[in-house]
Amino acid sequence: MKNKIYVHVADDHKIVIDGIIAVLNTDKDIEIRGYSLTGKEVTTWFENDQNQADVLILDITMPILDGIGVLKYFKKNRIRQKVIILSSYDDIKIVQEMLSLGCKGYITKNNAGEHIIEAIKTVANGEQYFSPNIQRQLLKTLAGQQVEEGALPENFLIDTLTDRELDVLKLITKQFNTSEIADTLNLGISTVDTYRKSLLRKLKVKNAVGLAMYAVKNKIV
Amino acid sequence: MKNKIYVHVADDHKIVIDGIIAVLNTDKDIEIRGYSLTGKEVTTWFENDQNQADVLILDITMPILDGIGVLKYFKKNRIRQKVIILSSYDDIKIVQEMLSLGCKGYITKNNAGEHIIEAIKTVANGEQYFSPNIQRQLLKTLAGQQVEEGALPENFLIDTLTDRELDVLKLITKQFNTSEIADTLNLGISTVDTYRKSLLRKLKVKNAVGLAMYAVKNKIV
DNA sequence: TTTCTTCTCCCTATAAATGGGGAGTCCTTT
DNA sequence: AAAGGACTCCCCATTTATAGGGAGAAGAAA
Lengths: 221, 221
Description:
2 copies of one chain form a homodimer. Helix content of chain A is about 50%, strand content about 15%. In chain A, helix 4 links the parallel strand 4 and strand 5. In chain A, helix 7 packs across helix 10, helix 8 (about 180-185) packs across helix 9 (about 190-205) and helix 9 packs across helix 10. The first copy, chain A, is of the alpha/beta class. Chain A has helices at about 15-25, 40-50, 65-75, 90-100, 110-125, 130-140, 165-175, 180-185, 190-205, 210-215; strands spanning about 5-10, 30-35, 55-60, 80-85, 105-110, 130. Chain A folds into 2 domains: about 5-140, Response regulator (Rossmann fold); about 165-215, Winged helix-like DNA-binding domain superfamily/Winged helix DNA-binding domain (Arc Repressor Mutant, subunit A, Orthogonal Bundle), CATH 1.10.10.10. Chains A and B meet through helix 1, helix 5 and helix 10 of A and helix 1, helix 5 and helix 10 of B. The structure holds a DNA duplex (30 and 30 nucleotides).
């Protein structure tokens, strides 16, 4: 029999945390060591109380510092604790983004109740875990590559947006036009145009509306 | 001492329901009589088991039939049970839309834990209840009208979109351009242009991106 | 009946976005 | 040293969206 698994939960909705804690309390191998309502709280917690948690359950959408920011922080500071993303979104692009940032598991809120305990035990054991529906999508995306279920590679990055492209994308969602964006970012209009074009190409959308919808779906705004 | 308040909870995320139930179980005056994961389940439940619940806690975002659909169903079938919207969104337009559809309370998921019991008791008592942050926004919007806190009027509708405008808006979010929309709806290009213009005017946005963002925020798509 | 809204279409005109290229600098990685 | 990525800007041209106005037909509401 192994030791208890210590867990930290982060979600901006306290009610969700309450739910998760209620579920996790039903398992004697798991112990909740704290929770956070913002990404900033998470990083602070892990700075001050290192090694008090083995697994972090992390929501993507949080104020101040979001899940992506937390993952980046973990990666940068080489924090070894396992992270499981708990998300409302089952967009494959998000999942891949999170994977590339080093998360070890990804479960959707739809079926968190059923799978969260299994997910925690799996990643605590050094393996990766994904909700069945996520797994299905990942496998579909990877069709052609030889991978077995449950052991997905981390080394497939999505066509990541550069910093500048992200800057432009964010301003587009604010209804800025090209010249306003150029002014705001102190760039030439041609430059902003270039970024618009590369955004359209990378995200495979038709127009600015497509960019905005992508940004919303992927919680960039 | 009054009787127990019977409550039904609807949210597409089971984990949220678990959280709400956990919170509500701490109050002896409240009893949960069931829950639903889709809007369709809600209407079915209220068809088969009338009067088994006094208050319905309703999430806006649900598959099959969303919260708006449920409210419309309630209104149409003159179902008298009180509805409290539990939402992630604090957009004032959504709140007003919900109010016009007859909901009696509106709380955000951010502070549901603190206010949900108070909200249930308030609406069960025949009054309206809003999260403090929502109340603040409503009052700001109503600035100029004479209303006291906690007793807000139901009779202020937003500048409603017509059916055709909604048709066009939905297609815009799908990245259709004007001529594609015209083809799809069997309209002339000029006509679609007219709707685009009125959408921009009514929703007070600058461009198609603004329309798309509005549609997303207000769960039109 | 008159008024109002909605739906439909038109005109003119400008502003903005999209599509296809090229190209130089800087910096990091190989 | 070479290669690649990111950042910056430019040319060309076409398509699309936005802005302002007008107007008739049908139906509902006052």
